[in-house]
Write a structure and sequence with these properties.
Strand content: under 5%
Radius of gyration: 17 Å
Shape: flat
Structural class: mainly alpha
Length: about 60
């Protein structure tokens, strides 16, 4: 299982780098990796039913509904 996940990370990183324009910086690379991690974490949370409704977040932080 870990090998499959490692292969996925490697192939995803390669595709992210290929999608960057010429002249991309290390900051550009890191930004793309961060965005991808955030998306995958959100999708994992969704699949595990760990999401919190917007109204609940607003209530917890005392924000207007």
């Amino acid at each position: 299982m870990a090998q499959i996940e490692n292969d996925h990370v490697r192939s995803t990183a390669i595709e992210l780098i290929k999608g960057l324009p010429n002249g991309a910086t290390w900051d550009d690379v890191m930004e793309q990796v961060y965005i991808r991690q955030a998306i995958e974490a959100g999708l994992k949370s969704e699949s595990e039913n760990e999401l919190i409704e917007v109204d609940e977040v607003r209530r917890r932080f005392g924000l207007a509904v």
